[in-house]
Amino acid sequence: MAWVESLQKAIDFIEEHLLEDLSIEDISRQANSSVFHFQRTFSILTDTNVAEYIRRRRMTLAAKELTTTDHKIIDIALRYGYDSPEAFTKAFRKQHGVTPSEARKFIGNLKSYNRLVIQVSLKGAEPVQFNIVEKGRFQIIGVKKEFSCLNDQQQQEIPKLWDEVNANGTSDQLYELNNGQIKGVLGVCTMNQDQKEKNLLDYWVATEYEGIVPEGFQHHEISASKWAVFAVNGAMPHAMQKAWKQIFSEWFPGSGYEHAGIPEFEMYPGGNPFSDDYYSEIWIPVK
């Protein structure tokens, strides 16, 4: 459960430096993680992103200070990282639904977000369906785009890429070209060392393919590994989001496995992804 402790260490770091200029790089470093993997794990377990957590916590403490002290609003705004009363008021109203001046007069209700404590369940109410697969090195072909990991930008842009490949027929081509053991279209995140340093990643919509790369597609080699393959049953995107959360909060802590550090991926076979009986998979390299 070292990864749980690392994540909690990063959250504690945020709290200890909440009034300072926090960077996602410094926060991720506390968890011995890349920006991408830290933000992904944080979002899966907390249902929010790092920037939003920091904003909520600052506005919670700002509300407390407004209602328990006579400090000037401009001073409180500066203390919590806002250069102007207008920017502070906008952020404050977004969370609490009232202005700082109204809060000081005890008008309306305030919304408080407590400090996060990561908890995991070692015994889930629902079974996690998985099997362990040994697979040698294999090639994927497809299309890729580079995205920034900062402020979870990739979370907003990756769905647009899927809309694009579904609309222009690329995903249909990949289904037809698939000739490997893994049947379906894959969503794969990869990053080289240079990208890690710049907080960038490549996201692939791809398929396993043996042979010469067809014109119009790029290729990438996935290293040999032991894989935990999780069955995902249900309509997208809810079923996939639910499965990721169950894996991180229930399966990993009690499994005895660790992430092997090479790209993980989601596998989508043919069929209607919005159907309640749709089947897909999550493949995570483990050691």
UniProtKB/TrEMBL annotation:
SUPFAM superfamilies: Homeodomain-like (SSF46689), Probable bacterial effector-binding domain (SSF55136). Keywords: DNA-binding, Transcription, Transcription regulation. One of its GO terms (molecular function) is sequence-specific DNA binding. The keyword DNA-binding applies. InterPro entries: AraC_E-bd (IPR010499), GyrI-like (IPR029442), Homeodomain-like_sf (IPR009057), HTH_AraC (IPR018060), HTH_AraC-typ_CS (IPR018062), MarA-like (IPR050959), Reg_factor_effector_dom_sf (IPR011256), Tscrpt_reg_AraC-type_HTH (IPR020449). It comes from the Bacteria. The keyword DNA-binding applies. Residues 8-106 form the HTH araC/xylS-type domain. This is AraC family transcriptional regulator.
